[in-house]
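During the reporting period the student researcher (J.K.) took over the structure-prediction task from the postdoctoral fellow and processed the backlog of single-chain submissions. One of the processed entries is reproduced below for the supervisory committee.
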Amino acid sequence: MNKRDRGATSVAEAHADTDGDGAADIDAAMGNKAYEKALKKLHVELVKLQEWVVHKGLKVCIVFEGRDGAGKGGTIKAITERVSPRVFRVVALPAPTEREKSQMYIQRYMRHFPAAGEVVIFDRSWYNRAGVERVMGFCTDAQADGFLRLVPAAEKVIVDSGIILLKYWLEVTPEEQTRRLKSRFEDGRKIWKLTPMDLKSYSRWYDYSRARDAMFLASDTNHAPWYVAPSNDKKKVRLNIIRHLLDHVPYQELKRAKPKLPKRQSAGNYKEPDYPYKIIPDVA
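J.K. obtained the following structure tokens:
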């Protein structure tokens, strides 16, 4: 956890207030109406932040990591659904090509880093080397250890260049991960989320725990700390992370004149054409 602002002494303790009697009960604790109301307020603030980022030419890089089923995708969607995709860019890279495998490891990530006036969100990041690549055997232990030795210095360069770097780890309990992955079997909207890699990695819970622990020990630095978000409660973790993001990217509301629609031109000699438009059927 963040050395500067340490709360619970373990990830398990961080979950203590959210586990309760079951994840379904937790998500139900905040009703949809209350959640949407809170989220709407935060979306307004995210728009203000967006305008400030563009106005000041800020560069923001946000990293999301966590176990499969921890809720990274839903949290990213909650952040980005009301802002401009030209300012908030989401980067979710596929497996590296043969050419990319021959490059310096971080090279394919750096090409996506933010320019002035951009917020880039990595849905998994260069920390793949410390997690899935290590656990699933896509890199050697020596390669993973070498990455962890170098990443603090690399992130110091990133931060010193003026990029605001935020790193979030979403942590879910074993029971809730099982529930979420099983739900993907049964829901046609979610089946695409279930990959052969998810099934292989599911059985290696403690290998991932060891990899996570080594990653935190090496890369939870003062200049680029990890922020851990217990994510059994999907609604709560989304609101908490957005609030945290707003607290850690300094912004102000830009003053703007209240917009007013201009008068629409008159039709003049324009007439609607008698054209056989192919109208989409109304089946609702």
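The committee noted the following: The chain has one domain: 11-248.
J.K. will present the remaining backlog at the next meeting.
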